[in-house]
Amino acid sequence: MKSKPIIYHPSEDSFLIQKHIKEYAKGNVLEIGTGSGILSQEAAASDNVKKILAIDIQKGVIEHCKKTISNEDKKITFKQSDLFSKITKTEKFDCIIFNPPYLPTNPRAPDITIDAGKKGYEIIERFLNEVNMFLAPHGTVLLLFSSFSKKNIIDECIKKNLLEAKQIDQQHISFETLYVYAITKSSLLQDLEKHKIRDIHYFAKGKRGLVYKGVYSGKPVVVKTQHPDAITLSTVQFEAQWLKKLNPHKIGPKLFFATEHFLVMELIEGFLFEEYLVTQQKKEILSMIKKLLKQMYLFDSLGINKYEMNHPDKHVIIRNRIPVMIDFERCRYTEDPKNITQVVQFLSSGRITILLEKKGIHVDKQGIQNAARLYKMSRNKENYDRIITFIK
Questions:
Q1: Residues 119-129, buried b or exposed e (16+ Cβ, 10 A)?
Q2: Alpha-carbon gap, residue 42 to 12, rounded angstroms
Q3: What is the pLDDT of residue 103?
């Protein structure tokens, strides 16, 4: 039996966001979660709007809108889609309208038209994580949400996705406050897109900025951005300088290019150091450790210190059995580099030796530390080779 669709009938939130459609809707418009269709109808009434795509997750809602909404000028096209799932990434919209479900889900009385997830913001978060791929460079998102949706989290999600929000309206109703945001792409996001970087997604928060994943020239890349509050020399410029010096030695991710505000480099995917020790066999682990020590010896020979190597688990990714170092903001030229000795200290620590012993690999702690002290006095190939003999 065909289930009856749940139509969200216009309410205070619908009318609040509707007030701003005439000002912001233009060109190619997308409405997500069209429900009754009144927002798409409002947009269609504007001479500034050329066409509208109105989508909803419920097929029955789309069928209802097609039957009940007057669409004589054929501006509105209706389509079933869960957010952007059925929209091609090449299509860009000058205005995206979203009056989403924004209340924490009540398992006792589920309602697809108002349930946003357990915490009340999950659907909005999904939307914000994807919207920049579909928004035109100078387009605007009209987003409505409630104080029950946790405004601070939505604000943070907007920033993480390199978007900027302006609160253009609010209304207090009973126990909640409704907010309407006009959201646009930040200048940084527009700059990244001008440099042909696509599919940009928030990846992680670093100590000195934010990290994003994207695609450049058909290849997956990492984009590191400068922290907006930083007042010192740009760390992204600093890291870019080191990658330019180290890439010819086949060290680090390939640097594609860098500007004052961001750098774009190859995405390295693989195992973290300790994960590799747990999942791989003795032969592969020994080979990886020797390759890592060889890179550290090269660093020492170049007079460069990479300060994080006493805990390489956070700064080394093993890809195709080869350790690839990442994060070069703290590299420095020095007369007393400590890369080998840092790694030796790590390998001879109790937690790591236990992991290695489980794989049948023995680290002679006293022997390797004595060899490291000798190496520190004279950093030559003979003393470097001696260190390796204490890992079997």
A1: ebbbbbbbbbe
A2: 16
A3: 67
From residue 321, alpha-carbon distances to 267, 285, 316, 318, 375 in Å are: 16, 8, 12, 6, 27
The contacts of residue 317 (CB under 8 Å, 6+ apart) are 268, 269, 270, 271, 272, 323, 324, 326
Confidence of residue 227 (pLDDT cuts 50, 70, 90): low
CB 315 within 8 A of CB 273: no
Rounded Cα distance between 258 and 231, Å, is: 18
Q: What span, in angstroms and rounded, lies between the C-alpha atoms of 299 and 11?
A: 65
Extended beta strands in 92-175, E state:
93-98, 103-104, 115-117, 135-146, 163-173
Q: Are 151 and 124 in contact (CB under 8 A)?
A: no
Q: Has residue 1 got a pLDDT over 50?
A: no
Contact assessment for residue 96 and residue 135, using Cβ atoms and an 8 Å cutoff: yes
Distance of alpha carbon 160 from alpha carbon 2, whole angstroms: 41
Tokens of 350: 């109790």
User: Above pLDDT 90, what percent of the chain?
Assistant: 71
DSSP string for residues in 10-64: --HHHHHHHTTHHHH--EEEEEES-TT-HHHHHHHT-TTEEEEEEEES-HHHHHH
Contact of 24 with 182, CB cutoff 8 Å: yes
Is the distance from CB of 124 to CB of 79 less than 8 angstroms?
Answer: no
Q: Is 79 helix (H, G, I), strand (E, B) or coil?
A: strand
* 309: pLDDT strictly greater than 60: yes
Give the SS3 label for residue 225. strand
Q: DSSP secondary-structure letter at 254? A: P
Closest C-alpha to 37, from 4, 12, 9, 13: 9
Full-model pTM: 0.80
Q: Output 89 or 31, whichever has higher pLDDT.
A: 31
What count of Cα atoms within 13 Å lies in the side-chain half-sphere of residue 82? Answer: 4
Distance, CA of 207 to chain centre: 15
DSSP letter at 328 equals -
Dump pLDDT digits (tens) for 92-103. 999 999 998 876
Largest CA distance in the chain: 86
Q: CB–CB of 264/225 below 8 Å?
A: no
